[in-house]
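Notes from the 1:1 (GR / supervisor)

We went over the backlog. Supervisor wanted to see one worked example end to end before approving the batch request, so GR pasted a single chain during the call. The sequence is below; no edits were made to it. Supervisor asked that the structure be written out right there so they could see what the output format looks like.
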Amino acid sequence: MFDVGLGEAALLAVLALVIFGDKLPSVAAQAGRMLRQLRAMANNATADLKEGLGPEFADFDPADLNPRRFVQKHLFDDDKATTADDFASSFEAPAYTEPALPYGERPPFDKEAT
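Structure output shown during the call:
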């Protein structure tokens, strides 16, 4: 998700030490509590949504609302490829066939077709 390298992470850690100083442990604890609260809120919202939809939608997964997953689920069958890469690789390359005309020979001209 975040493309942060080792040098960038070290720079962020040094900046955090400079900015927050002695308060860094309490700030980290607050951030952890906030993250837990956000996860709990998301889980509760998901549970409320499933409860509100009723038993007809017991197998509903909110992650299916992601457009990529939605397309994969509804366009590709379970017995077929499940990703676009698998789908593309499931086709075999056509076997080489001889050209219909020998090399250099022009196809017949059809005045009505042009």
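Supervisor's comment: DSSP finds four helices and no strands in the chain.
Batch request approved.
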